[in-house]
């Protein structure tokens, strides 16, 4: 539609920090919209933070919780959520802002009485899609949207780790995945990375030793070495070898990084894996949870000239894979039971009906209850991957 195309052009021409203003003006002109608010999900995925209040709003807009709010319902379900009846009065519409499966936030729009929601909602979702694309581009030039994600200040180590991540979720026809780090505002050593081509998904889950800046620097070196090797066309074992050499050259064995590397064939579900340390994998298949052990190999950087050998397994449509760092499965309860013994498989079973984007946060909440007080003394990383395979007749898992 010409109006949507015109808005997309206006967003591309706008100054990066003015995107909410452009959307607000366009929706007011086309739909008679009243208040329009853009909220971004915070790093801990617990609240939706206002990006920018219009000039006529004198009081700051309070964050709303992801759980238990209308905005959070739209964010969690990834579907528009409407409050009110357009036949009797104005309505509030909350719409997810998501790009390629990465959930950014929610756009809330107040629409006047007698609005035809059947035609308006699809158009508003197109607006949100265009806005999501432009936010990702705008973040190269402005801190506005990054700042909106912060419920509190990040440590420097956490700042480095979050800037290193590819996103928090990704969706393709063949798979969907979600990931979460805790403590979100003070994480230092755990990390994940992924890359998707026409034929493969490459996924890495990393756990760098140490704390604070030292751990963040170590993990940054390892992740960028793995990316450099992947982009040079090396196979999975070659990627591990190059990253191992890079870490050893810098630290001479004083520090190392535990990494689980996986390469999925999108057409067959065949997986190549290199287990170079502590991150672990569980599989939920037909309501049965099983740990997936690998032949343990040396972490990256522990010794010079380590040789890595890949292993192979196959995922089937309907499989759910859960990856966790040692801060998750080694966390102990008051009675001394580690989370990975029984509680983690129970949590994976209990969350089987949730989409993969919501599973990591749910598992980490269960981890917090299992561990109790005091807070965890190590990073905790959870990545959830749902495998659909190619050729699904119902089209489920299509990219948003």
From TrEMBL:
Pfam families: SpoIIE. This is Phosphatase. One of its GO terms (molecular function) is phosphatase activity. Gene3D superfamilies: PPM-type phosphatase domain. Keywords: Hydrolase. Transmembrane segments: none annotated. InterPro entries: Bact_Sigma-Reg, PPM-type-like_dom_sf, PPM-type_phosphatase-like_dom. Residues 172-387 form the PPM-type phosphatase domain.
């Amino acid at each position: 539609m010409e109006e949507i195309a015109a808005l997309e052009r206006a967003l591309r021409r706008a100054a990066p920090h003015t995107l909410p203003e452009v959307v607000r003006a366009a929706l007011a002109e086309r739909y008679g919209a009243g208040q329009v608010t853009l909220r971004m999900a915070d790093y801990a995925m617990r609240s939706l933070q206002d990006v920018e209040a219009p000039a006529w709003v004198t009081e700051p807009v309070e964050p709303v919780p992801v759980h238990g709010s209308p905005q959070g319902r739209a964010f969690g379900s990834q579907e528009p959520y409407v409050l009110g009846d357009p036949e009797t009065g104005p309505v509030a519409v909350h719409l997810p802002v998501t790009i390629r499966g990465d959930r950014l936030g929610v756009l809330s729009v107040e629409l006047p009485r007698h609005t035809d929601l059947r035609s308006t909602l699809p158009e508003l979702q197109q607006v949100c899609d265009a806005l999501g694309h432009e936010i990702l581009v705008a973040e190269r030039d402005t801190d506005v949207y990054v700042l909106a994600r912060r419920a509190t200040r990040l440590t420097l180590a956490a700042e480095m780790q979050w800037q290193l991540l590819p996103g928090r979720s990704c969706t393709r026809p063949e798979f969907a995945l979600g990931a979460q780090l805790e403590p979100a505002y003070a994480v230092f050593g755990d990390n994940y990375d992924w890359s998707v081509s026409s034929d493969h998904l490459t996924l890495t889950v990393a756990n760098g030793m140490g704390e604070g800046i030292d751990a963040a620097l170590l993990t940054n070196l390892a992740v960028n070495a793995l990316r450099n090797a992947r982009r040079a066309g090396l196979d999975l074992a070659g990627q591990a070898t190059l990253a191992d050499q890079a870490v050893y050259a810098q630290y001479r064995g004083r520090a190392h990084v535990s990494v689980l590397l996986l390469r999925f064939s999108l057409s067959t579900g065949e997986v190549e894996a290199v287990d170079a340390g502590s991150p672990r994998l569980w599989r939920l298949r037909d309501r049965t949870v099983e740990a997936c052990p690998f032949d343990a190999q040396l972490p990256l950087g522990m010794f010079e000239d380590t040789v890595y050998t890949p292993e192979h397994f196959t995922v089937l449509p309907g499989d759910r894979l859960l990856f966790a760092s040692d801060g998750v499965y080694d966390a102990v309860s008051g009675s001394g039971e580690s989370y990975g013994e029984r509680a983690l498989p129970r949590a994976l079973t209990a969350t089987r009906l949730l989409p993969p984007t919501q599973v990591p946060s749910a598992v980490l909440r269960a981890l917090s209850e299992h561990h109790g007080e005091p807070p965890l003394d190590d990073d905790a990383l959870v990545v959830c991957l749902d495998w659909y395979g190619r050729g699904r007749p119902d089209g489920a898992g299509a990219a948003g």
